[in-house]
Design brief:
With about 700 residues, this protein is α+β, with helices and mostly antiparallel strands. It is about 65% helix and about 5% strand. The radius of gyration is 29 Å and the shape is elongated.
Length: about 700
């Protein structure tokens, strides 16, 4: 094949790649649009797969009429309810009973102080259909409205589920737009070009579109849980990780354009140079996220595959579509700072060279100081507030939560939401007697039967999610070993227990998976252990900072039980991601014969700018979650953003570098690089990452 044919073929490759992506998007388009249809944010979609409360909810779904939508109507007047207020309540309840398909006749329960009247309302008409549930809740709220100073609130599990669903449904647009805006601003500042920033941003948008279609396929093919939380995190990962990969590739491409005349050849060299590190880092993130499949919590287990899909779709787009678009646009995409062939970049004083110099002069001092600082910050984790309650899960209190607060104040010594017991029908009478005789039970009522199971609704004497109510639920479970005890409060107990179990299972798996990949990549044992220890220290310090800010600064009254596990998985996987870029470069320098200290400092100087830019983008994308209306998302976004910044500007820059300088060749033990230079065979290093 002649030179002209070769050039023609090379010119055709980017166009072929672009055509392939257009075809892929054409096929994926209809499926991506259906992802919202399979998103589920019911309690059962977040509950532990094997817990009592989950089994109770599943049995309820199979009873005649399906799942029950339970509401509590709360009528309240500070100075005490008047006869007219009671007449208003009776009139509204009569209209609700006439217009809605209820499972029974609501009866009012007055508070001891006479300020509040509570009615329990339930219907099986909506079943498992969330749209019908929301319509039912909306209809009840339209009828039960404030009148002449009489406060009326609609709460209960059904109303809480509707309010939570509205919040989750409202996340998609603001989350995507805010993420795109944040990434765009950072890319403009990093690239200092009016055009270049748009290319990786558009490619990231394409990757997100593809990820949505693949996520829909996972749901249809394997039943993967799609929740508002997991879909939001997937979008964050696509834009955060995808932009990181783009920064590395564009930086290397800019450098190659100065030494290679044709953009196609420059891009090929750039892919050869940074491709292996990007592949290894994305593989590490994917492996860490897939460990969440071992979790028993439905929401955590579903987040693993969706996060992996996000990372892999971002990887595919940034290593195929982005290069094709950049080659087609040529050098002019970098305007006004166009890298001319044969030119040299303007010499600038490197901040990371100065940082590396300070770490290299006194490595042990820097290492000890950083370790003490991280340890001190980690102590703040003991100040984290207790487990987050349902009513504290929203940054802006919806009506259902306001109703719960009103009930808690008006009925301090009485349960205001039912505990559901599902018992075999043949032993229902005995179970009812046992329940009524259990300490802490105020009342119990037999409900529907079907499929060999009978529903018993239990009202505890204690307030919801109090220590006394928890003791009552545990007593019921101990007294009824052949039954399932569920309901909102039981679900919270199971969530706490399962999160503890998942931490004990998933954390070792993540550490083992990441460590094995690092050992294979770096051909060393000490360097991988160093990187893993560093990211674990970052995680602990990030939780410590959260403990010092969640209550005093944000005013949060609790911590999401899943925060520890999810933040660990993300910070370890993403933190090691940056460690790979640094250590991979350090290994190249060592293979070229550089002394250990020089190799470490050169690696920091040449990769520091890229890693810092990538860290800023990733931290900013997760920080977008802190603007969301759900406390669990705010907490997760804050901890990961803080952790990424700590890892980028403290741990990766100072501690890993100083530890590598202090250890010398031992950092590569027991690999060949740990041997004296004379033993090593000469190896030509790859070209280094360029400065941003």
């Amino acid at each position: 094949m002649g030179p002209e044919n070769t050039r023609t073929r090379r010119r055709a490759v980017p166009w072929v790649m672009l055509a392939l992506w257009i075809a892929v998007l054409a096929v994926a388009g209809p499926f991506a649009g259906k992802l919202g249809d399979v998103q589920r944010d019911r309690a059962i979609d977040y509950l532990p797969a094997s817990a009592d409360s989950t089994q109770a909810a599943k049995i309820q779904d199979r009873l005649p009429g399906g799942e029950s939508t339970d509401l509590v109507l709360v009528y309240h007047r500070d100075g005490g309810l008047t006869p007219a207020d009671r007449a208003t309540a009776d009139r509204q309840l009569a209209e609700i009973s006439r217009t809605q398909d209820l499972t029974g006749t609501p009866e009012g329960v007055p508070s001891d102080d006479g300020t509040t009247l509570m009615y329990s309302v339930a219907s099986t008409a909506p079943g498992q259909d969330e749209t019908k549930r929301d319509t039912f809740v909306g209809a009840v709220r339209d009828i039960a409205h404030d009148t002449g100073g009489l406060g009326v609130e609609v709460g209960g599990p059904g109303a809480l589920a509707t309010d939570a669903g509205e919040v989750y449904n409202s996340l998609d647009g603001p989350l995507l737009y805010t993420t795109v805006a944040v990434v765009a601003i950072l890319l403009v500042l990093i690239y200092r070009s009016p055009f270049l920033w748009l290319v990786p941003l558009v490619v990231a948008g394409v990757a997100d579109f593809l990820a949505m279609s693949v996520a829909y396929g996972l749901n249809q093919g394997f039943g993967t849980t799609i929740s508002g939380q997991s879909q939001g995190v997937m979008t964050i990962l696509v834009f955060g990780a995808g932009t990181d990969y783009a920064l590395l590739l564009v930086s290397r491409y800019r450098e190659e354009l100065r030494r290679v005349e044709r953009p196609y050849d420059a891009m090929a060299a750039a892919l050869r140079g940074c491709g292996p590190a990007v592949l290894a880092s994305s593989g590490t993130v994917a492996a860490g996220l897939l460990c969440l499949l071992a979790a028993d919590l439905n929401s955590s287990r579903g987040m693993g595959p969706l996060g992996t899909v996000g990372v892999l779709c971002a990887l595919a787009a940034m290593l195929t579509l982005l290069p094709a678009v950049l080659v087609l646009l040529g050098r002019r995409v970098f305007w006004p700072l166009v890298p001319a062939f044969g030119s040299t970049p303007k010499a600038r004083r490197s901040l990371f060279a100065a940082m590396g110099g300070s770490a290299g002069r006194r490595p042990l001092t820097v290492l000890a100081g950083g370790a003490v600082l991280l340890g001190a910050l980690a102590l703040g984790a003991f100040n984290l507030p207790g487990d987050l309650k349902q009513e504290d899960s929203f940054t802006k209190r919806p009506e259902s939560v306001t109703a719960m607060r009103t009930l808690a104040d008006a009925y301090p010594e009485r349960g205001t939401q039912p505990v559901t017991v599902m018992t075999p029908t043949g032993r229902a009478a005995d179970a009812l007697g046992t329940i009524e005789g259990t300490r802490g039970v105020e009342a119990a009522e037999r409900g529907r039967s079907g499929g060999g199971w009978t529903e018993i609704s239990v009202i505890a004497r204690a307030a919801p999610q109090s220590a006394a109510e928890t003791a009552t639920i545990k007593a019921l479970r101990a007294a009824l070993p052949d039954s399932y005890v569920g309901g909102p409060s039981a679900q919270e107990i199971d969530l706490e227990h399962t999160n503890a179990r998942d931490r004990n299972v998933v954390v070792p798996l993540v550490l083992a998976a990441v460590l094995l990949i690092l050992i294979a990549l770096l051909r060393s044992l000490v360097a991988p252990l160093l990187l893993v220890a560093a990211v674990v220290a970052v995680w602990a310090a990030s939780l410590g900072i959260a403990g010092l800010t969640f209550g005093p600064l944000f005013g949060f009254h609790g911590t999401d039980p899943g925060l520890g596990l999810l933040s660990f998985v993300f910070l370890v996987a993403l933190g090691v991601d940056y460690g790979i870029f640094l250590m991979h470069r350090m290994r190249e320098e060592s293979l070229a014969g550089a002394e250990p200290a020089a190799a470490a400092l050169t690696a920091l100087r040449t990769t520091g700018g890229v890693i810092a830019s990538a860290g800023l983008v990733l931290a900013a994308t997760f920080a977008v979650l802190t603007n969301m209306p759900l406390v669990p998302l705010v907490e997760l976004g804050f901890v990961i953003a803080v952790g990424v910044l700590l890892d980028t500007f403290l741990v990766r820059t100072y501690l890993v570098t100083s530890a590598s300088v202090a250890l010398g060749r031992k950092v590569w033990w027991p690999g060949p690089l740990s041997k004296p230079p004379a033993v090593l065979a000469p190896t030509a290093p790859e070209r280094p990452y360029s400065r941003m």
